[in-house]
Amino acid sequence: MKFCPQCAEPITHHIPPGDDKLRYCCLSCDQVYYQNPNNIVGTLPCWQDKVLLCRRAIEPRKGLWTLPAGFLENGETTLEGAVRETREEAGAELSMDENSLYALYNLPNINQVYLFFRAELANLDFSAGIESLEVQLFAEDEIPWDEIAFAVVRKTLELYFEDRRARQFPVRMYDVRYSADRRADIRLICQGRQG
């Protein structure tokens, strides 16, 4: 951010009075611009023993597989956003219940929070949206594990197949930190009741 959207004067980066963090500030109109983490919401869409994955048509990680997910929009609940993203990326309609929250990941290094919801496909009428090259159902032994786009997606898939065998789906929260060589350290913070 270089210029103030309110008055078009140059923006400075400093700690404003009464705060303890660096903020983008306009000294001309006294506006403070807070930058907060982004919420990424998605689903784990299932059909019998398979999971629906999307092959990304956009960067980052173009060509790799992921669960349908994207940025939460203003005015949406997290569940509404996850359902919308699934419709946009996979053209899929879902059947969900209210306690479908499955996994939450805090990624403080990149200022993001991921939330995934478990869902059942309402039917097999799905197709790739504009952000996907293709969409496909995979059983556990068919998952392209070496071509999964993001560490949190891989972890969510591993959890799901493990939980499916145990027939228990507790809600879990993780902290994810990346090392200098971009390896993800995913640590369980808490685990709720069975969902």
Automatic annotation (TrEMBL):
Query: What GO molecular-function term can you cite, just one?
Result: hydrolase activity
Keywords tagged on the record: Hydrolase
In terms of superkingdom, the source organism counts as Bacteria
InterPro entries xrefs:
NUDIX_hydrolase-like_dom_sf, NUDIX_hydrolase_CS, NUDIX_hydrolase_dom, Nudix_N
PROSITE patterns recorded = NUDIX, NUDIX_BOX
Q: Any keyword Nucleotide-binding?
A: no
Q: Which cofactor does it need?
A: Mg(2+)
What's the protein called, per UniProt? ADP-ribose pyrophosphatase
Task: Record the organism.
Answer: Pseudohongiella spirulinae
